[in-house]
Amino acid sequence: MKLIECHNLETAYATSLNRPILNDINLDIDQGEFVVLLGLNGAGKSTLLRSLVGLVPLVKGEIHIHGLEMTPQTLPKIRREIGMLFQGGGLIRQLSAIENVLCGRLGMRTTAQTWLGFPKRDCILAQELLGQLGLRDKIYQKTSQLSGGQQQRVAIARALIQSPQILLADEPITGLDVVASQQVMQILSELNTQQGLTIITVLHDLGIAAEYAQRAIVLDAGRVVYDGKCDNLQEQFSQVLSL
Ligand SMILES: Nc1ncnc2c1ncn2[C@@H]1O[C@H](COP(=O)(O)OP(=O)(O)OP(=O)(O)O)[C@@H](O)[C@H]1O
Ligand SMILES: [Mg+2]
Asked: Highest taxon of the source (predicted)?
């Protein structure tokens, strides 16, 4: 059984594009894979990632995660298996690093439990994660006062606090300098190799993609135009997109 299966995914027709945003997407991803999602601006990469956590209405097709078909009933269970790093971070700037990380636990708690605050074990786990990601001295700092690379690590900790099996990362290194980019990619790589986390990440840098991922999927106008190894990625990318 594949970890992620997408069959014939199609979104509603978008009049602004004269086509559906996602158009007949078929994909299978195994446990433990490190996949990079590539394509030009507007190709549908973010939409595809968001569809895997049920944030995109589909008019056709099916998504199975661990054999479980995504339906309104199964979505809460599926979402607990998937951590997501949104394009641009998606952190709450007014909250501290640890408060943002604890937000990653909200999906596991009822509204009433949320009123009571987070249990001590969640707070300890959040502190440990931030420590492991090199932010031990920033735990109580307001997120707006952290650098882009530090914010990205807070976002990773928030995604990891629910111990997901799958991590979806939408442009995790966009806007970061060379050193911070390598650090974030290294963190993702270690999560993949050491903890067996399945990773799908959107990147725009083909060199970094080839350095870290084993498999590349290229989207163009909502369709998969390449799905294969990262060998000669620059050439493959230019060829499939006729650049
Ligand atoms: N809610 C929406 N309603 C209508 N069109 C949308 C919506 N969301 C995205 N689109 C359009 O769908 C296309 C794909 O958007 P998406 O954000 O998935 O692209 P992307 O590949 O992630 O691009 P980028 O590299 O710029 O992040 C774009 O043309 C966008 O304008
Ligand atoms: Mg995007």
From this structure: Bacteria
The closest ligand to the CA of 40 turns out to be 1
Q: Which two tokens stand for residue 48?
A: 């595809």
Task: Please give the helix or strand (H or E) that residue 128 lies within, else none.
Answer: helix 120-132
Q: What is the pLDDT of residue 165?
A: 96
The residue whose CA has the least distance to atom 17 of ligand 1 is: 46
> Rounded to an integer, what distance in angstroms lies between the CA atom of residue 199 and that of residue 236?
22
Three-class SS of residue 32? coil
| Top-tier CATH class for 2-91+164-236 | alpha beta
Distance CA 148, CA 172 (A): 10
Ligand 1 within 6 A of 21 CB? yes
CA atoms within 13 A on the CB side of 87: 13
Residue nearest to atom 9 of ligand 1 (CA): 47
**pLDDT tens-digit map of 95-143:** 999 999 999 988 766 666 666 677 899 999 999 999 999 999 999 999 9
Tell me the whole-structure pTM to 2 decimals.
0.93
- Please report the atom of ligand 1 found closest to the CA of residue 40: 25
Cα 63 to Cα 156: distance, rounded to the nearest angstrom? 24
Give the ligand 1 atom nearest the CA of 44.
18
- Cα 42 to averaged position of ligand 1 atoms, centre (Å): 5
Cβ–ligand 1 distance for 41 under 6 Å, the answer yes
Q: Where are the domains of the chain?
A: 2-91+164-236
